[in-house]
User: Which sequence fits this backbone?
C-alpha cells in the first residue's frame, strides 16, 4: 500500500479564538492639584497657578498580556463655559521594559498645565476637562484600548494681587477703581 504524501501539511487549519480571552477591563481616574501645593485637590485654581493633572490607567484581564510593544496615549482636553481658551495636552507611554504589561498593570500620566493656559475673564470661568485614552498596536495602527471621562469641571479665577488687580488683566479689562488708583499713583 502506498501513501500519498503530496498533500500532507497543506490542509489549512482553523484557528478559533476563545471568546473569554477578550476579558480586557480596567479603570481610568484623574486627580487635579495645585502644583505648588501637591496633595491638596482643587476645584478652583487661580489663572497664575500650575495645574497638575495625574491620570492613572489600570488594565486587567488575560488579554492585557498581549499588549506588549504597543502604546497607550492619554489626552487631556479643555474648553470653557463661555469665550475662553481651548486646548489639549497629550502623552504616550510605550508598553515595553518596565512599562510592559508583564511588569505592571498600572500606567501613570502626569500633565503640568502651565499658568496662563486658562483665560478666566474678569470674574472667573468654569472649564470642562475631558480625558481620552487611546492605543496603538505594534504595527502603529489604532489599537482596541479606548476610554474617556467627561465629568471633570474646574473653576479658574483671575489671579489677584494686593491692589485687587489681576496681573493677567490689562487696560480696559482692569476694574475701574484699580485703573483710577494706578493713574493717581502715576501723578
Assistant:
Amino acid at each position: 500500500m502506498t501513501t500519498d504524501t503530496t498533500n500532507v501539511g497543506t490542509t489549512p487549519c482553523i484557528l478559533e479564538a476563545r471568546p473569554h480571552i477578550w476579558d480586557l477591563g480596567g479603570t481610568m481616574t484623574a486627580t487635579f492639584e495645585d502644583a505648588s501645593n501637591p496633595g491638596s485637590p482643587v476645584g478652583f485654581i487661580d489663572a497664575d497657578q500650575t495645574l497638575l493633572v495625574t491620570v492613572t490607567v489600570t488594565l486587567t484581564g488575560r488579554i492585557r498580556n498581549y499588549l506588549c510593544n504597543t502604546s497607550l496615549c492619554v489626552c487631556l482636553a479643555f474648553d470653557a463655559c463661555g469665550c475662553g481658551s481651548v486646548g489639549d495636552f497629550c502623552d504616550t507611554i510605550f508598553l515595553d521594559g518596565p512599562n510592559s504589561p508583564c511588569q505592571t498593570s498600572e500606567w501613570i500620566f502626569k500633565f503640568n498645565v502651565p499658568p496662563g493656559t486658562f483665560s478666566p475673564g474678569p470674574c472667573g470661568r468654569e472649564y470642562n476637562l475631558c480625558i481620552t485614552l487611546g492605543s496603538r498596536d505594534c504595527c502603529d495602527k489604532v489599537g482596541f484600548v479606548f476610554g474617556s471621562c467627561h465629568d471633570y469641571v474646574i473653576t479658574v479665577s483671575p489671579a489677584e494681587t494686593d491692589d485687587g488687580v489681576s496681573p493677567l488683566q490689562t487696560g480696559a479689562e482692569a476694574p475701574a477703581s484699580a485703573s483710577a488708583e494706578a493713574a493717581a499713583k502715576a501723578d
